[in-house]
Amino acid sequence: MRLKTLALNASEDGFRMAADLLNQGELVAFPTETVYGLGASALSERAVAGIYAAKGRPSFNPLIVHVGDPKDASLYARVDRLAQVAIDTFWPGPLTLVLPRLEHCVLVPAVSAGLDSVALRMPNHPAALSLLRASGLPLAAPSANPSGGVSPTTAAHVRDGLGGKISAILDDGPCLVGLESTVLSLTDMHARLLRPGAISRDALQAALGQTVEVPGDEDVPSAPGQLVSHYAPSARVILDASVRPKGALWLGFGPASLEADISLSEAGDLSEAAARLFGALRELDDMAEPDQIIAVAPVPEMGLGVAINDRLRRAAAPR
Ligand code: TXA
Ligand code: MG
Predict the structure, then answer these.
(1) Which of 16, 39, 151, 284 has the maximum number of C-beta atoms within 10 A of its C-beta?
(2) Which of 179, 213, 247 is the endpoint of a domain?
(3) Same structural domain for residues 177 and 269?
(4) pTM, two decimal places
């Protein structure tokens, strides 16, 4: 069934309408500082099932539950000293915590995909926080794209992928960070980095005062959703192209690739590159002739470059 996907804006009326739809168990995409999320009430079986259906998401891949107040974490999960430090230091912000789920917690089991943990995040975005407040709900929200595809950083990206399948999109312009949140597991007194993001491993280790492990085995997804091929455009992607391969589209980074079709950042600025990455992959995908490949210039493996390269490697992984 095709729905009419309403366009809402970040105004009192927009928040009210979006909140009403969410309370009726409908799906509403909304902006966060990282990427747009596909929101649904985390208290409704039907709404959460709707997320998996709209995205074509495998049912073993759990969802992040978004909260509007740091104190809400302890309604749903066991927050130990380490988790409290992470919350106090990084929320609101682009850090998702995977914590032990409270046994009688009101969140529907499907948000955890059968695991005894739950992923929680308080986004740092005024429209997301207004919507959380207006709805009074914890909101399950994966990135608002068909499963396996490139995450959306504008409302138009959301409409491209999910228009006709969801009730509304709350538009508040492009996302400033542009990469999905860092996912940190704190389930067993060990800190494990499940997905790199804007909050770096170094920043986490400094705040927590202990080592953050990085699960290394690439064949076993560290988070259920960290399948090797992910965040992928339709065209084939190759990496570390310091010159344009013959016939390829070229995605540049820094002053050494000014001849590229699109540059992530001509100045070589990693924040700018992160914010542009997913939009640039979409644009190049649209430009590509059948069988034309997208070649990406090297991005340094430091700071935000770690998260950018993680997404690029998944975009380039064999499908
Ligand atoms: O920035 C973000 O995190 C965005 C915005 C909308 O908040 N959301 C997002 O959601 O990227 P999604 O579903 O695309 O990615 C969530 C990641 C997946 O890799 C998933 O497997 C992992 O978090 N995850 C969720 N719950 C988990 C759990 N209980 N244990 C381990 N990993 C979990
Ligand atoms: Mg995603």
Answers:
(1) 39
(2) 213
(3) no
(4) 0.95
List, for residues 188-231, the tens digit of each pLDDT value. Answer: 779 999 999 999 999 999 999 999 999 875 555 556 656 666 77
Expressed in angstroms, the distance from the first to the final Cα of the chain is 29
> Which residues are CB-contacts of 246 (< 8 A; sequence separation ≥ 6)?
none
* 3-class DSSP state of 26: coil
In this model, does residue 315 exceed pLDDT 60? yes
Q: How far is CA 114 from CA 153, 182, 240, in A?
A: 29, 22, 39
Residue 144 Cα: closest atom of ligand 1: 6
Strand, coil or helix: what is 157? helix
Verify whether ligand 1 is closer than 6 Å to residue 149 (CB atom).
Answer: no
Residue 218 resides in a domain: no
CA of 141 to the centre of ligand 2 (A): 9
Which atom of ligand 1 is least distant from the CA of 141? Answer: 6
Q: What is the DSSP-derived secondary structure letter of residue 95? A: E
Minimal-distance CA residue to ligand 1 atom 18: 225
> Do residues 157 and 301 share a domain?
no
Residue range of the domain that includes 256: 237-316
